[in-house]
Amino acid sequence: MDFNQTEDGKTDFGQSGFAKGHPQEELERQYYFIETCRQYVEAERKRLGRPLTAKVVTFGCQMNARDSEKLSGILAAIGYEKADSEEADFVIYNTCTVRENANNKVWGRLGYLNTYKKHHPHMKIALCGCMMQEPEVIAKLKKSYRFVDLVFGTHNIYKFAELLCRSFEEKGMAIDIWEDTDKIVEDLPVERKYPFKSGVNIMFGCNNFCSYCIVPYVRGRERSRKPEDIIKEIKKLASDGVVEVMLLGQNVNSYGKNLENPITFAELLQEVEQIEGIARIRFMTSHPKDLSDDLIAVMAASKKICSHLHLPLQSGSSRILKEMNRRYGKEQYLNLVQKIRTAIPEIALTTDIIVGYPGETEEDFQETLDVVKQVGYDSAFTFLYSKRTGTPAAAKEDQVPEGIAKERFNRLLEEVQRQAAKRANAWTGRVVPVLIEEVNEQDGSLVTGRMENNFTVHLPGGEDMVGKIVDVALKECKGFYFYGEAVST
Ligand code: 5AD
Ligand code: SF4
To answer: How far apart are CA 73 and CA 54, in angstroms?
Structure first.
């Protein structure tokens, strides 16, 4: 049975027997449901004579990765142990829908899960995240994927325990999708993937409506967290041993505009800079149209903000950029890059580029190649345009044939790689600070870490170095990564 849904699409638990007697204040309410779920899991554990296991599978971006840490935190609080594979008692896919192939992956893997569930009928399967915000996806699930137990979207992830509780108590597929929300619930459990670094959401949603992009439709309008909540979270992370934070938002440069007491992103960064124990600050993503001089000045003066900026270009053609509703042109973008490089000469610049946007001609594509050559990115994510139903670009008639788009994509990739290798090579022989992230998977005598500019470095070392920032001499450049050696200071 689906949940009762109110007219605005929200589930009305208030009227059901299930909901009676639980706390009304949101945080307290969710802890109440965590405790109730814990009792169900404990009962199952006794019945099966073994602990219950859960697996969270993440698709997509850093935002989703952070959401998955929240899901994992709640699952751990409920009493599930972590499973290594999807052969688990509870599996949740945190989905992405930014491009069609992200959706295809989920449909494919659901097929496998169905087969496994047939032999393990007590298993629960849950889906959440961006893809679930699409009405066609929900219709398809209802029609052909009835073995899925729990479905929710991006706005009500904080209700995970409540929804799970519901699915323990009622048979059938439980669906709860909201169209939007202005609610941000603080202080729920989180289980971090890395002890020494963490993502921190500073805002949710996007108001930009780039014509190709589905994100504003599935993540809703821009909402900023209060600076005091962000600072409190980062101070807590620092006291837990975190040395690097990545501030996350679809468009961090418009952070704080809609708060009761407005504050700029540059001001927020200055506050984060003061937090003792935090050695590195990263952030993403910056929209070029909103990148302020103040931000550049704060970055240039900072000792902690990494010398790296992810500045999505999307296209180098002013005509296509206008069609994309990006609100900057080629020259404006190049001027911005020049301004940034003048203030911070060694900064690493990375970008996102879409190839094959409807109506893109060879001349437009040449403009993109030209920007790549002029800027010389340290790395770039290149994407084939993917038609997303409901976006303005999807309705365009002049879609670029796949063969032409792919051929342009390959040429772009070649140029991007040439530039990136050139940029990387220039670091050879220098000594740089590296945050050691893990023991190398292939060779246990090596550890792997990251430079400020996000390049990967492998060097001799052991487990005891993980989470530390070490000065490393870069001995050899392998195109996109380095071999180095720790130097004693
Ligand atoms: N097709 C291809 N790439 C897309 N992106 C967003 N929407 C699409 C789409 N429809 C890319 C953009 C964005 C990145 C996260 O994904 O480059 O910056
Ligand atoms: Fe999508 Fe544009 Fe918003 Fe980025 S800024 S999430 S590309 S709409």
So the answer is: 11
Ligand 2 midpoint to CA 354 (Å)? 12
Q: What are phi and psi of 482, to 5 degrees?
A: -125, 155
Tens digit of each residue's pLDDT (9 = 90 or more) over 144-174: 999 999 999 999 999 999 999 999 998 889 9
Report how far ligand 2's centroid is from the alpha carbon of 364 (Å).
21
Where are the alpha helices (H) located in 155-225, listed in sequence order?
Answer: 160-169, 215-219
> HEC states along 329-393?
CHHHHHHHHHHHHHHCCCCEEEEEEEECCCCCCHHHHHHHHHHHHHHCCCEEEEEECCCCCCCHH
Q: Is the CB of 383 under 6 A from ligand 1?
A: yes
Quote the ligand 1 centre to 71 CA distance (angstroms). Answer: 25
Q: For 105-185, where are the E strands, in sequence order?
A: 124-129, 150-152, 174-176
Question: How far does CA 370 lie from the centroid of its chain?
Answer: 29
Q: What are the residues whose beta carbons fall under 8 Å from the beta carbon of 368, sequence distance 6 or more?
A: 313, 315, 316, 317, 353, 355, 412
Instruction: Kindly state the percentage of the chain with pLDDT values over 90.
Output: 91
- Of 172-181, 350-359, 461-470, the one with minimum mean pLDDT is 172-181
Helices then strands, counting H and E runs in the chain, come out as: 13, 19
Q: Is 99 in the pocket of ligand 1 (CB under 6 A)?
A: yes
Give the per-residue pLDDT at 161.
96
Strand 53-58: give its sheet, edge to edge: 81-82, 53-58, 90-95, 124-129, 150-152, 174-176
Structure tokens at 77: 């609080």
> Containing H/E element for 38?
helix 26-48
Q: Does the beta carbon of 350 lie inside 6 Å of ligand 1?
A: no
> For the whole prediction, is pTM greater than 0.90?
yes
Burial (CB < 10 A; 0-12, 13-18, 19+), residue 456, is: middle
Q: Which residues pair with 383 in a beta bridge?
A: 354
